[in-house]
Amino acid sequence: MFGQLSHELEVNAPASRAWEIYSTLCLAEMVVEELPDIVQKVDAHRGLRPIQRSSGKHENEKRMKETEVIEGEYLDLGLTLYRVQLEIIEKGIGSCIIRSTIEYDVKDDFVANGSRVSVQPLANIAQVAAQHLTKHE
Questions:
Q1: Is the pLDDT of residue 4 over 90?
Q2: Are 83 and 64 in contact (CB under 8 A)?
Q3: Within 10 A of 31 (CB to CB), how many other CB atoms are there?
Q4: 91 C-beta neighbours (distance < 10 Å), count
Q5: From CA 37, how far away is CA 118, in angstroms rounded?
Q6: Would you call 125 exposed, middle or buried from its count of C-beta atoms within 10 A (0-12, 13-18, 19+)?
Q7: What are the contacts of 65-69 at 24+ separation with CB within 8 A?
Q8: Distance between CA 71 and CA 93 in Å, rounded?
Q9: Cβ–Cβ contacts within 10 Å for residue 60, how many?
Q10: Is 63 exposed, middle or buried (0-12, 13-18, 19+ CB in 10 A)?
Q11: Do the bridges between strand 53-59 and strand 64-71 make them parallel or antiparallel, or are there none, so unpaired?
Q12: Could you give the angle at the alpha carbon of 76 between the alpha carbons of 70 and 82, nearest 5°?
């Protein structure tokens, strides 16, 4: 069973400023400070160190980051795909949208575990970033 969850948050700050946060360790540091239950540790060389092992891509031109879990809890629950995409979309000169998307696929025998996938942690991270951006604009 394939599923997709998405969250969008409009922010009164330029997309370039939002991307400065999302594309650097600044986001990880904010999350550790404001939402410590979401991550275990920030590594100065690798950024967020989640419980799962993952691979990803980072596209500055599109203001997009994508991470796919390749090992860990979600795959142990019967998911064959767990991918997170974070995008900063320019809405106007002084505003943008933070879009957080999770794509997942669950083996037929584990369909009930699909309900454990939630976009809420990413929505919480977007809110922390938005508060930081609007406070410093």
A1: yes
A2: no
A3: 20
A4: 14
A5: 15
A6: buried
A7: 65/22, 65/23
A8: 40
A9: 9
A10: buried
A11: antiparallel
A12: 45
Is residue 100 within 8 A of residue 127, CB to CB? The reply is no
Q: What is the average pLDDT across 55-64?
A: 78
Distance between CA 42 and CA 120 in Å, rounded? 20
Beta strands in 1-137 (DSSP E): 2-11, 41-43, 47-49, 53-59, 64-71, 79-92, 95-106
Instruction: Give which of 37, 88, 33, 40 is closest to 60, Cα–Cα.
Output: 88
Structure tokens at 39: 């991550």
**Which tens digits make up the pLDDT trace of 61-107?**
899 998 888 777 788 889 999 999 999 999 988 999 999 999 999 99
Give the residue numbers marked as catalytic: 65
pLDDT in the model for residue 29: 87
Residue 11 token pair: 């922010």
